[in-house]
Every structure is written in structure tokens, then in C-alpha cells.
């Protein structure tokens, strides 16, 4: 199997090293693992592409490239340039440092890369490691992802064999904020919403007296509905959420039709 890995934390991120280990396990002795990742951290860029400017791609080692662009740019660079003659069989994005559950999904460059791969009609999985008191200061904060990543992916691969009409399915996987030995299993989960939690800004004056705004995150320990991703993670389970790029609110179409008729 030929696997492309990318992330949004950057080419030197420790989570990318964990992702490579997982990918090499999946690819097997005769497989290939290609890395095309942002040269610098691109957290929070979502599904951004560098539509209005070119970006440079540098080869760092065999099958390893750093791109001065977004995670979605990295997927496009790999598929249409670096790997155009030997396209990947699977795209893996992550392992992200921090969860991409609930509202974080909408901002995540990790998710953006997997979504772009799905738009390019390739099987794709985004993987993220939830952080909390039990693993934040651990020697390896990615231990749960390292230990359970390959098995999780293998369970999903049979569901990804057949290309779909319309927007292709991809998967969002979040590992719980616990040691590997404390992971209780895997659960399918909907994307949740943490009540009263969201991004905001915090002003700060520089030493020169200039006013800047820092983006400030919300409480990541807030619980979603029990069947949703963040709650599943906080209960010690790996959450697996099937996703598509289709943002249509299908449940609202009937009422909209009545209102517009």
C-alpha cells in the first residue's frame, strides 16, 4: 500500500512521527509512506488553499517534503505533482496535538487535509490526540494514538474500498486523553457541540504599546451530548466520526421548501 501522510502541526511535529510509525505499520514491508507536510505550523487554517499565491515545496529526504502552504495544499501538491505518477492508496492526516472533536472540526487543518483528499476521491482519515491531565505531561502524549492507531485504521479500511457518487466519505478519529492501557475501546460518534464553548479573542499590549489580539480557545473538557465525539473521548473511548464535505442542512430542506413555495 502507498500512503500519504500530512498534518497541520508542521513537518517537525512529534505527532507526525507518530503518524509515520502508524502508516508504516499499515503499509507493510512492501509499501511506501510519503510525507508532504507544512513547513510551519498551520493549526486553525481549516480547508484553506493557497489560491492567490504560489508556494514552494522542498525535498528533505526520500519521499519527504515540506510545503510552504496549508495542509490542503500539501495534499494537492502530493497528488498532482510529487506523486502524480504513483498516487496514494490512502491519505492519513495527523496525528494532531489536541482534539479535533466538536466545533474544533470546523477550524482544523488536520480535517481540511482529509477533506481535500476525499474531494480528490481518495480514502482519507484524520487522526487527533485529545490532551488532558492524564497525558499532557506524559513522556509520550501520543501514546494512545501510537498504540491504537493502526488497529483503528485497519477496521476502517474495508469501509473505504468503493468510491462514492457525490461527496466521498472520510473519517475523523480522536484518541481519548488517557494512557494507552486505559483506552476502553472504539465508538462511532456524531460531531458534537460543547455548550457555552467557542473561540474568542484576548487583547494584549506589546512593549511598544501596540494593541494585539490573541485568539483564545474554550474549555476542551466541556461535555457534548453523550453520543457525540468529545463526550465519547472524555469517557475513555476512541471516537470515529464519518464525515463528508457536504454542508447542506438536509433536515431543514422541507421547511425551507414550504417557506419558499
UniProtKB/TrEMBL annotation:
Q: Which InterPro entries match?
A: SurE (IPR030048), SurE-like_Pase/nucleotidase (IPR002828), SurE-like_sf (IPR036523)
- Write out the entry's keywords from A to Z: Cytoplasm, Hydrolase, Metal-binding, Nucleotide-binding
Superkingdom to which the source organism belongs:
Bacteria
Requisite cofactors: a divalent metal cation
Q: Does the keyword Cytoplasm apply?
A: yes
Show the catalytic activity: a ribonucleoside 5'-phosphate + H2O = a ribonucleoside + phosphate
Cofactor binding note: Binds 1 divalent metal cation per subunit.
Gene Ontology CC annotation, any one: cytoplasm
Q: What is its EC number?
A: 3.1.3.5
The entry's function note states: Nucleotidase that shows phosphatase activity on nucleoside 5'-monophosphates.
Q: Which family does it belong to?
A: Belongs to the SurE nucleotidase family.
- Record's NCBIfam families? PRK00346.1-4, PRK13931.1, surE
Name of the protein: 5'-nucleotidase SurE
Organism in which the protein naturally occurs: Roseivivax halotolerans
High-level lineage = Bacteria, Pseudomonadati, Pseudomonadota, Alphaproteobacteria, Rhodobacterales
Amino acid at each position: 500500500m502507498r500512503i500519504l501522510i500530512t498534518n497541520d502541526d508542521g513537518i517537525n511535529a512529534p505527532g507526525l512521527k507518530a503518524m509515520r510509525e502508524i502508516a508504516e505499520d499499515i503499509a507493510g514491508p512492501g509499501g511506501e509512506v510519503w510525507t508532504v507536510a507544512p513547513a510551519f505550523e498551520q493549526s486553525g487554517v481549516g480547508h484553506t488553499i493557497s489560491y492567490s499565491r504560489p508556494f514552494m515545496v522542498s525535498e528533505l529526504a526520500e519521499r519527504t517534503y515540506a510545503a510552504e502552504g496549508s495542509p490542503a495544499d500539501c495534499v494537492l501538491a502530493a497528488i498532482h505533482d510529487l506523486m502524480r505518477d504513483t498516487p496514494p492508496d490512502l491519505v492519513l492526516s495527523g496525528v494532531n496535538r489536541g482534539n479535533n472533536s466538536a466545533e474544533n472540526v470546523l477550524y482544523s487543518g488536520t480535517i481540511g487535509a482529509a477533506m481535500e483528499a476525499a474531494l480528490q476521491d481518495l480514502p482519507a482519515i484524520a487522526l487527533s490526540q485529545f490532551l488532558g491531565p492524564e497525558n499532557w505531561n506524559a513522556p509520550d502524549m501520543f501514546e494512545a494514538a501510537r498504540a491504537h492507531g493502526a488497529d483503528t485504521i485497519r477496521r476502517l479500511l474495508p469501509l473505504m474500498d468503493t468510491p462514492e457518487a457525490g461527496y466521498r466519505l472520510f473519517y475523523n478519529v480522536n484518541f481519548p486523553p488517557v494512557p494507552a492501557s486505559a483506552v476502553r475501546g472504539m465508538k462511532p460518534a456524531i460531531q458534537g457541540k460543547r455548550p457555552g464553548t467557542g473561540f474568542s479573542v484576548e487583547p494584549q499590549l506589546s512593549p511598544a504599546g501596540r494593541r494585539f489580539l490573541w485568539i483564545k480557545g474554550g474549555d476542551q473538557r466541556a461535555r457534548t451530548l453523550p453520543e457525540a465525539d468529545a463526550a465519547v473521548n472524555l469517557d475513555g473511548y476512541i471516537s470515529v466520526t464519518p464525515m463528508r464535505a457536504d454542508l447542506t442542512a438536509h433536515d431543514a430542506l422541507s421547511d425551507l421548501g414550504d417557506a419558499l413555495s
